[in-house]
Automatic annotation (TrEMBL):
Protein name as it appears in the record: Disease resistance protein At4g27190-like leucine-rich repeats domain-containing protein
Domain of life: Eukaryota
Residue ranges constituting the Disease resistance protein At4g27190-like leucine-rich repeats domain according to the UniProt record: 357-447
Keyword field: Plant defense
InterPro entries tied to this protein: At4g27190-like_LRR, LRR_dom_sf, Plant_NBS-LRR
Pfam families: LRR_RPS2
Amino acid sequence: MGLGMFQRLRNLDEIRNRTYTLIEELKSQSLLLDGSNEHCVQMHDVVRDIALYIASEEKRGGFVINLDQPIREDCYENYVWISMTNLSNKTEFPVEIKCPSLRLLTMKSGNKKLYDDEMRLPDRIFDGMQEVRVLFMEEIHIRSLPSTTQLLKNLKTLYLFNCQVLESIGIVGELLKLEILCCIDCYNIRALPREIGRLNRLMLLEIIHCRNLKRIAPGITSNLINLEELKIKCSFNGWEAKKNNARENAALVELESLTKLRCLELEINNVSSVAEEIRLPSGIVNHSISLIIKERDSYFFMQERDSLWDHYFSKMCLEIPGQMNVGNWIKTLVRFTEFLDLKGDGATEVLVGLNWNLKSLTLRSCSLVKKLLNTSTSAFPSLESLTLAYLDNLVEIFPPKPDKYSCFKNLRTISIEGCPRLRFLFSVSEAIMFLTQLQDLTVIDCEAVEDMIIFSDDDDDDDKMEKDGEIRSHNLRIGFPKLSCLKLAGLPRLILAQETLSKEILCF
């Protein structure tokens, strides 16, 4: 994007989609290969060598990668792209590198173990490359950016990755054309300075795994009026309440100014913000949402702990204590969420009116829930995964005679743990009719559970007269034709005949 390749596209969503399309076209021609995950690609050595040969021709603008010769001052004047790899604290840089045509500069350390060794960059290193549009720095261990960074007036993308010594980025506020700012694994950054609020062209602000970031000055986010994507994860979480007039940090109310916001990924360590009313941009509900609200110092749920997290477009994790009102902005976001993880007695407020888009629901540590479904809850026609844990008063998950709960037909995974009052999971008719896609069933530490299935009055009398073990295993096979994994543990009252179950689906 920083190189101006997608000038006709209107926003980051369109640019991202176009990029993915181009990548798939290159894959179809075997010019790119699948990478280790969906976010990476690889290139065959032969294709890479040819590409480097073509790109390095001076008449095409020039491209240098993996400098293994001393960096010279005046030999890169015609180069458009330069990638400096294998840099170290022993690399000798000239005072100034003259690259008047340079558009993209990549700088990367060659030794990941040099975290404690500060690299020495000349203060005037960027003096001769003022046309740079994209600057990528990886494992460049400097405490502050060179003063000549402020001369990069045309810079549109700045990517700082694993620059673990870096402490100050205030000078970035001078780069008024900047559209993308990413700081990832920059552990020593402790504050986002007020100067960042000057970047009113910024479209993407991404701060991830900057674990010592404790302060975002008030007013910074509200000034970023063109921001489309705000991602602050595993970093700053001290968003303050708007009622605090003497606040030292940013408040969620500042998001109201971001009318173009389409992607929001935050962690909030202040549950009182749940009760506040915030008018989020209307466009955000149809786009990417990742929101974690938890009590201070609580380690309830981090996305790294759940393999499902990255598979969903919009996700929310809420820890809501009892007797707390939930703001309408939270309820609105919940209605458009695919992945929802709830904890605490206050979760009952959110359970009412869950949406048709919900694909994964986790509910834990909520003593007020007795029945998962009742007349006030909505159907879940898209639900694929259901997890219920430590619900002390849960007595019923699926009603014996469901008249509207065919919505569970897409359910593939059910996990129940620590529900001491639960006696049964399903009725026979329900299991046969509605749960035909179930693949994984786990029931752990539910001491009152007597069986997986309870019979309704509509079940055939002749079936009821058969032996418990035979009929129950029979109905498990009929009701769950795709079941591949059954995990049972800590169920002292379970009377299901183990020997009648096929060995391949019984896993302790």
